[in-house]
Amino acid sequence: MHPSVFAETTPDKPAFIMAGSGHTVTFRELNDRSNQGAQLFRALGLRVGDGVAIMMENHPIYYEVLWAAQRSGLRYTAISSRLTAGEVEYIVKDSGAKVFVVSRAMAPVAMELAENLSDVTLLMVDEAVAPFGSFEAERARHPATPVPDETPGAAMLYSSGTTGRPKGVKRALAGGSLLEGEALTAWAREGYGMDPETIYLSPAPLYHAAPLGWSMNVQRLGGTVVMMEKFDPEDCLRLIEKHRITHVQFVPTHFVRMLKLPEAVRAKYDHSSLKVVFHAAAPCPVPVKEQMIAWWGPIIHEYYAGTEGNGRTVIDSYQWLAHKGSVGRATLPVEVKICDDDGEPLPPRSEGMVFFAGGGKFEYHNAPEKTADSTNKYGWTTLGDVGWLDEEGYLYLTDRKSFMIISGGVNIYPQEIENLLITHPRVADAAVVGAPDDEMGEKVVAVIQPMDWADAGDDFRAELTAFCRGSLSGVKLPRQIDFMEELPRHPTGKLYKRLIRDAYWAQAKAAAGG
Q: Which of the two ends of the chain, N or C, has the fewest CB atoms closer than 10 A to its terminal CB?
């Protein structure tokens, strides 16, 4: 139940393979380097419960940093490589990280914020640039033996709400032995049949919760991870055939891109090695999932869960075909509850807030009010989604985190974008919503109420795009900017964003003949 075990039993087996370069790291190498990394963290003064922040692209050293932190009892915070310097700085500081490890590719952002992290040890992978020290050189100074106080650490990843800054999801450290499994490890083994024979394809950025968690659990179980540096639909099919991939997780956007390949291209590659394919992170359009099951067979699984780890639902292909659109039923001992605005449970087919009862405990780091807001009077917790249950207990989601935008499996939070747009001197009001997008699922649309209606035009659109680009990462930039003479606000100030969002979805439905 830990890579260190397989460093002894199958030392020369690949723990992971970089898909593009073919660079391979064995379990022995991963174990030795993560031991050295753990020794380095101790030498830098980090103790059990302290934090390390990591910002890299999908890089060969990523896993050794993760496992170094894990085996020394640290909380590790993986940060998106697409964030701006200000966004990264906030997460590093809020997490309380004492060490910040970046790759050379992240230098443009890392160098911008370095002077504001004077109390954090700065390390860089691949030709370090001052004030960052060389991670590899510092690691090499230490022995490849375990630290004497080994104990499991855990991820503390940041999951934003619909307003304000992102929040760190913090769970209690397990303590005890490294060999004790986690709930996700048991799910991987018992639910999806992962074992030492597993060859897992990881097609998404490792800083996301699911790729990080699933791939580390494959290594816990002695399997091999094939990590794509960047997703490409045909390359994905080629890798499945080349490496005889058995397990893979996707987001629906990956499905869409593979399905859009010409039939002749799709037919070139053998996918018969696949045993389990599972997806999450965003709603999957029913026609897309139907096509995937028709193409790959009934090996497609889906789950609904959050970084918070407070519960989950699961569904396989057969169940889904009988309950199309569902994200599944809760796994015991957790129950799904649908509640009204007063927190009272509702009967089947009634829409309300989705709560998990009997699930794992969590807190939002440095945000007790947000932790409290996620819990109702019965102690049940919510991710903020709206949905309903059928009579058999299958969950259907009808809304997501008060208009959170999910584009290509990435969560985008409108309030941050709105708060920036409203600071523009010629913007009277702003709303940001998710509109349908064939490839990405949703796209970011900004609806602007100009101070002067005469400004509503292409020149102002270009100006606002440039204005946003200076402060927001690319994934958050509005793909479309529209204008309204007056946004629909209640006299109390509440914005009726649903009216704006629903108009885009209705237009798309009408255009599709629905």
A: C
